[in-house]
Every structure is written in C-alpha cells, then in structure tokens.
Amino acid sequence: MTAALKLMAPMTGMAKGLHDVADEVFSKGLLGKGMAIDPEDGKVVSPIAGTVTTVFPTKHAIGLTDDNGVEVLIHVGIDTVSLNGEPFTVKVAAGDRVAVGDELLEADLDAIKAAGLPTTTMVVITNSDQFKDIAPVAPGHVSFKEHVMEVFQHDKEAGTEPAMA
To answer: Smallest Cα–Cα separation from 78: which of 39, 104, 52?
Structure first.
C-alpha cells in the first residue's frame, strides 16, 4: 500500500492521538481522522504542498488542499475561536500556493495559556472518508519536516471484490 500523501509536522512538539484531545469534536473524529501536537512554540508551517483553501476569520485555523484533493485542517488550540484572532498572526491568504515548510501563522502560545486555554493543535484530514486509511505517527516528539501522517488512497481495483464491513 503506497501513501497518497505524507504530511510533515506543522509544529514542533509532542505528537499524540486525536482520541487524547480534550475536545469531543476532534477526539470522536467528527471532523475526520488525524493527530494532535502539544506545541513547543507558536510557529505553524504547511505540512503539505498545496493551496490554502480557508483562513478562519478568527485566525485560529487554516484549511489546505493538496493537488490530489487531500483536505487538511490545522486547528491551533482548543476553544481558541473565543479569542477572536488576538494571539494569531496569519502569514497566508485563501488561494495562496504553499510548499512544505512555508509559514502559515504564528500563535502566541503564552497568550492562549493566559486565557486558560490549551494550546494543543489538531491536524485533521477533513475528507478522511474518501481515503482507505489515515495513519498518524506513534506518540512522541516531532519537529518540522518530519513525517507525521500518511494518507492512503483506495486500491484502484476497489469494487471488484465485495466490501468488508
């Protein structure tokens, strides 16, 4: 099985499973499969080459799409939408092309913590159901340009055999 896309770490920190995130929208996979990072600093870079599809008005989240249609959401912090963009400096706009490692935004982690909010950052494939599997790395320290997740496409022969439930 060959990965359709390998995602690099968008932040340096400790990787963990989405099931360990203190937000049910993410921990229950409601937005898709993925992983989370407890960041060491606030620099957020693109984990893929592709297009910026969404920059949330509150600057806490950015959506990206690669050329194969893999949709990636990077959501900085939990409940940080309530901060109305204050601790975030966005470096890109919707429609921009980005390469792996291009800076997307800077988050003031101290300001997020001062507001009593977790800085845990979620990296989610929002169209997970269109792929055979999403495989994040094992929990542990990750840094920029390290592979942290792979997205696997369905086999080309899909449909020739009965689907297994």
So the answer is: 39
